[in-house]
Amino acid sequence: MPLFDLPLEELRGYLPDRDEPADFDAFWSATLAEAREFDLAAEYVPYDLPYANVDVFDVSFTGWGGHRINGWFLLPRGAQGPLPCVMHYIGYGGGRGFPHDHLLWPSAGYAVFVMETRGHGGANNGRPGATGDPHGSANPQAPGMMTRGILDPSDYYYRRVFTDAVRAVDAAAAHPAVDASRIVVGGASQGGGIAQATAALHPAVRAALVDVPFLTHFRRAVEITASDPYQELVRFLSTRRDTAEQAFRTLSYFDGLNFAARGRVPALYSVALMDDICPPSTVFGAYNHWQGPKEITVWPWNNHEGGGGYQSEEQVRYLHKLFGES
Amino acid sequence: MPLFDLPLEELRGYLPDRDEPADFDAFWSATLAEAREFDLAAEYVPYDLPYANVDVFDVSFTGWGGHRINGWFLLPRGAQGPLPCVMHYIGYGGGRGFPHDHLLWPSAGYAVFVMETRGHGGANNGRPGATGDPHGSANPQAPGMMTRGILDPSDYYYRRVFTDAVRAVDAAAAHPAVDASRIVVGGASQGGGIAQATAALHPAVRAALVDVPFLTHFRRAVEITASDPYQELVRFLSTRRDTAEQAFRTLSYFDGLNFAARGRVPALYSVALMDDICPPSTVFGAYNHWQGPKEITVWPWNNHEGGGGYQSEEQVRYLHKLFGES
Amino acid sequence: MPLFDLPLEELRGYLPDRDEPADFDAFWSATLAEAREFDLAAEYVPYDLPYANVDVFDVSFTGWGGHRINGWFLLPRGAQGPLPCVMHYIGYGGGRGFPHDHLLWPSAGYAVFVMETRGHGGANNGRPGATGDPHGSANPQAPGMMTRGILDPSDYYYRRVFTDAVRAVDAAAAHPAVDASRIVVGGASQGGGIAQATAALHPAVRAALVDVPFLTHFRRAVEITASDPYQELVRFLSTRRDTAEQAFRTLSYFDGLNFAARGRVPALYSVALMDDICPPSTVFGAYNHWQGPKEITVWPWNNHEGGGGYQSEEQVRYLHKLFGES
Amino acid sequence: MPLFDLPLEELRGYLPDRDEPADFDAFWSATLAEAREFDLAAEYVPYDLPYANVDVFDVSFTGWGGHRINGWFLLPRGAQGPLPCVMHYIGYGGGRGFPHDHLLWPSAGYAVFVMETRGHGGANNGRPGATGDPHGSANPQAPGMMTRGILDPSDYYYRRVFTDAVRAVDAAAAHPAVDASRIVVGGASQGGGIAQATAALHPAVRAALVDVPFLTHFRRAVEITASDPYQELVRFLSTRRDTAEQAFRTLSYFDGLNFAARGRVPALYSVALMDDICPPSTVFGAYNHWQGPKEITVWPWNNHEGGGGYQSEEQVRYLHKLFGES
Amino acid sequence: MPLFDLPLEELRGYLPDRDEPADFDAFWSATLAEAREFDLAAEYVPYDLPYANVDVFDVSFTGWGGHRINGWFLLPRGAQGPLPCVMHYIGYGGGRGFPHDHLLWPSAGYAVFVMETRGHGGANNGRPGATGDPHGSANPQAPGMMTRGILDPSDYYYRRVFTDAVRAVDAAAAHPAVDASRIVVGGASQGGGIAQATAALHPAVRAALVDVPFLTHFRRAVEITASDPYQELVRFLSTRRDTAEQAFRTLSYFDGLNFAARGRVPALYSVALMDDICPPSTVFGAYNHWQGPKEITVWPWNNHEGGGGYQSEEQVRYLHKLFGES
Amino acid sequence: MPLFDLPLEELRGYLPDRDEPADFDAFWSATLAEAREFDLAAEYVPYDLPYANVDVFDVSFTGWGGHRINGWFLLPRGAQGPLPCVMHYIGYGGGRGFPHDHLLWPSAGYAVFVMETRGHGGANNGRPGATGDPHGSANPQAPGMMTRGILDPSDYYYRRVFTDAVRAVDAAAAHPAVDASRIVVGGASQGGGIAQATAALHPAVRAALVDVPFLTHFRRAVEITASDPYQELVRFLSTRRDTAEQAFRTLSYFDGLNFAARGRVPALYSVALMDDICPPSTVFGAYNHWQGPKEITVWPWNNHEGGGGYQSEEQVRYLHKLFGES
């Protein structure tokens, strides 16, 4: 991939206009209030594969619409006192995978709460999922999740997902082994987009780890990249041509730019300059709107894999430092 | 595409074992009975583009689960007496498109009732759709429709679709311009699979036009083709490896082989020998099980486009002859 | 496909210089005069598939060089008085297909005269053709039609095609069911390019429907798109490097920019902003040169499929309005 | 490419039935007689780039239909007495290229007469061509040469090419520097197919060098390979479905199997076992029918590149030995 | 990917002939003896990222030719007594990646010793490597490692790698935290091939975990798959055609079939039936030759990803059972 | 390929900054001095295939590190007096091929000395090679040659290659049939890059023929093209992210910009404007820095094939003129 977006110097100052509906906050307040009327009913079932130094639980809780959402919860065995907890949201297409995919944080001394993205995990052979999306779509959709319910903010797929993510924080905060004042949201790509939204929507979040976030700056993304999943939108718009403004109106309730503008906690972002899945200008657009203390790691030669394991280590160091550890 | 399936001589005699659950008929009886508890409430709204010699209606009716299903209904203007009616079911990914996509049958003197396949039509720029699938999926799914609800026959996507198709026949049969004794089901690929199922499920069907049918002989299909949409199943099975038998059990309620074995009316099939989407052995497998009078057109040099416009003309001639017309 | 050409605001004002040979009009006058020395000998053979409300004829006439050109001629059955007639020219690679591919206009109350593009229709399984191009090429050519005879305007393939198109109008105008004062030329892509040229070359043309036209603004096209068929030119130029100026001189007699500049009748254009086959600047280049009354439909999210069925309905409305009907 | 055709042991014995029209020889006799009514008018224009030890001529002569055919003629400078001459026919898509592409034979002590394949050489940037095909096609065709005129043996493209090739031998045999009793035909792929035909059609040919020949065993080729150019036939047959038997009848006049069965002179063949352009069974099918003394070089790991430069050296050795040289 | 290899029933009994040089054992004895003359000089440098419940070391030791080989060594913190140790060998193209990629085994109570494959890890952005291959290749090679030194067993790349792997076992066995009687070799693809070889070459190995092994049954692999890395061999053989027998002779010293036939310890294999990188017959070929107690997990719907995380859990259970733990 | 780099007018003036290490000349002086301590030991073995008018030798000599380098040496037979000699360096991936691939220069009256690029020629079936690279790489590398030893200028692959190229000139200059005052270096792509370097490094070079040179202006190349081999660098940098500056420092010793700035002899360059392998700005960057008399041939419609045979003829004319011949 050659460089194809703005030069780095311009990216650093790129602050795009945001398209924000007047009732953005009201929409989300109502959505979350409605979801919280369901009993959270978090369950933690011990996992049957014996591990030696980590405790693993198959977790489930009630998300949007009363639907059960699955995940993993891992703790370093024998930890003293409540632990900081990393909420881990998952990239597009993947399920929760296996507990052993999530050993980094417990090995580093943190709890990790992995939340599945409903409906994903059915076609990623490395990351199988367990959670369906029992809600359908009032409109015909492009294959994938991007256009499910896109003609109405109330029906849109990511309304359910972001709500699930907030409820997951509720669940983690209530777990006795977790220090509710040290909950961190994180993820890459779709997971980064969810983390970005959750940081804005849940007051208990203490920090955010946002890697190459998806679901951000939709209008620019669909104009400058030919790659999925943003192209799901283009395929839909090229088909249901009469709905473009309606669709963009829906998206304005879910655009990472608007969540970033509500970000008040410390955030560690990452961006890759050759990323044609989540182009760098869409990432910097959000980062530059973020209101809290912030840092960004720039990976000049990488595509959407972004910082990968390098970034994971950056994150461990970042949290160690933030929480005064090690 | 080279030839890759059995030689034509073997195809002509290929009669595979069928995997049929004991309660196959009970399952469908219960499903249809439940659907018929909803008021059909067929509506025919005149279409606003003035045509000179055809009457066009934007049709909707209540399908599975009380959901509204859209379509088109076209009649040759000024026809005398009730007309034979062709039910037209649509291929994978397409919506109903435009009325002018469906002028063949009214021009040939027939009514045509075009039914949308719920949820499709969101990413086919030539065939936009209007009908969503408000029901979701209890399991994570591969993008597309093949694995939506696949872990339970009651939840499976095509249960809703086949039920919609039966209800569409109910609607057509009740229309005053239609001769309910001359209803014909037809379609290509997914549309052929739906037609095949509907011919078995609705006693009013008088004949079937089944082109290169999809949704037929699943187990062989997934072993011999690398092409979508059958590969949606493989991607799911490669991910949710623990569910293979459960998934195939669900599919046994929807397999075209089992519907074909219940086919009693005259049928005109078509098959393409270089078809790697719906391989010829899966088509002949159904055709050879069909119990009614039957003919099959073999296209030796074609892939999944099958007979295309040639086959459409074959079908007009076939129905003209069947109904003693022209 | 991301956006890759000029922004829409610039496109609206884009008026490129035209490269027009001094004897452009003389070239075409002589060409047409020569062609008209052949007896047109239009024949209309009734088609054997019985239709109920449309009359279908297998039409042929003498085009350039005395060669017979095939097509379809369809009329709404029982129409009163001479009808307006749409000349339908076909896109690259396609033949005339089947009569039922052309039912839109007769259903809307118009005659339609479908002309085959000589030599095409041999490798488009949905649109078979019947007309060869008995004339060869004095130069070696790239596969396809773009470089056939490209080293001499008199030998160039599209000289024959545009002449055929003019003679087709002669044929339609002479048909007793056609109102010769209401002949409209139309088509998409190559068909749009032919319509554009024919509108300039035949005084009887009353209006033009030009969708995503090909054969227009060659020099820019070959510099900004890597897609066929424009790339046929690049492959030729990369091989016969010594002939570039000679080839571009030939093309200047066939460039849609020069025909558009002679366009005096009402025209409805369409353009797609993500079209990499016929890039939007090449379309706007012609549209902005068009001298008659004009409108353009802009499809922001589409590639070369352009407006598809949406545009067809636009065209029906446009002609209904132009001819004061419905 | 994996192995995909018959195993080598079966290939060695593979002797397919030939489909030969009763008037095969009469067809070719008449064709050649007609062509020989045109004055051959071979011209040899010295090439303007000075070479030190080879004489280069831009050659042209009258081929089928009175059309001028171009080529190169190269001689080792200062050779004593008439030389054996290799007729070099060119692969699909290529023109004659440059004189320096053909230095092997003069450097080895032979004359070489390079004949262009009419119409090719317009889109191969390494091998530009100079010769057009002024004859067109009575039928619509697939892009490329395989289906030009395919509905009538008299109109078929390769009738013109094979005739040109025979006339090229006439020209070489008449050149004072050539020993007419030592003319060898050779080529790879299409060039191999032409050489094979010419060896059967011209009595003066003394030996044949046939590498991975194309235009041989059409019916099997179209069934087992998905690669061009054989797929040009499949695209045509998938479109003009009504013409399959007519097309195969035409091809029977041009099938290498039938020419091979008339091969009486010594022949050196080559075949590549991973060749999906000209599959090994089509090559062995011809080789096994060849009636003269014969050898075949088997390249087990190669695709259609076949023996490449290795085979060229084999050929030099083969001719040196045949002619008792070096 | 459809099924393309032998049916499962045949695979279970597939026992191909082995091509084993007479001096196979002598070759390896001499190779290992020579390597052991270098001081092993294993170094364990504590890793600078603080982990909470695992100890991480950047390990290096002297492998073949005195070259330093890098890896990771991880131990569950605070373990009692010497631990069983899993030697983890890496798949083609990958480096050692990050310590957090290898947390499974320490979390399950085992030590893990990750050995880099020299020279890999330069183009796998998720798994960077640190170890070069300071030895070159006496022959020209295809890009990649498969043909480096292939013309001489002593020069062949995998001679160095397998020797490194044996020396890594030497290093692990000597570590005070490791129970030298419970060393297990494991890996997937190339890692599986290395494990298979090491199990045969090092008497201290107690068990083997061999997933979809590469470097096994070369001659069949190159005939039935078109996928890399086996295709590196085909590209080389298609180029250096004169060397095929020499190359296969070299490969016979490295073929997994020959190592499997020397496998005496318990082994857990896995195979994927749609694997076109390491086709199932090549895996079963080795498995069926394995002489020790053995089990094989068959993944019917997977390609080369094989069992993935499912298989990892199988392996934990397998070792827990083997060592009577948990 | 569309145009994607700067417009031609800007290219003609494009003079990028050069990143040149202070010890550039010292580095190369020391490297060459060290190499010249090895005995050159050039050997010329007559080739066994008898040619009539050219003498062919299998040449070898001692290059960098004492390694033997192979090539061909061809002379027009019976030439009078010492001849000018063209050093021919080969493009990426190719070996020396066959003597008959190199007949142009001897046919034109020049000696040609073909030098293999060590290690290449193992996967180019048309151009097999004979020379390995017995030196390895201290760092892990991306497949291919671009990153072999890239972390240290002394270890970098092209240090060995450029040194071999200088020593090849030493060998040619010492051959009795060669006029040491008329040695010309030439090549395309990688060969052009080697020629460019050798012209700067060897005082005996009299002229340079540099076609679409590779290994030039690395930093721009990796930012504007997605094509190999420059992408080998990107893959490495995306993996070994910590090494970017170290890698670019190494590359600065090998960048064609720096060699071009030392070019004092007459040079004939070529560039292709649609070249995405060696983009035109990288070529013009070097050309514009070249200090000697210079010409450049611009191929506007070509990709990396550049001028091909056209350019070869240009070169013959250029040298004929330079040396006052013909």
From TrEMBL, chains A, B, C, D, E, F:
The active site is at S189, D275, H304. Substrate binds at Y92. Residues 1-321 form the Acetyl xylan esterase domain. GO terms for biological process: polysaccharide metabolic process. SUPFAM superfamilies: alpha/beta-Hydrolases. Pfam families: AXE1. One of its GO terms (molecular function) is carboxylic ester hydrolase activity. Residues 121-143 are annotated as: Disordered. PANTHER family: CEPHALOSPORIN-C DEACETYLASE. This is Cephalosporin-C deacetylase. It comes from Nonomuraea maritima.
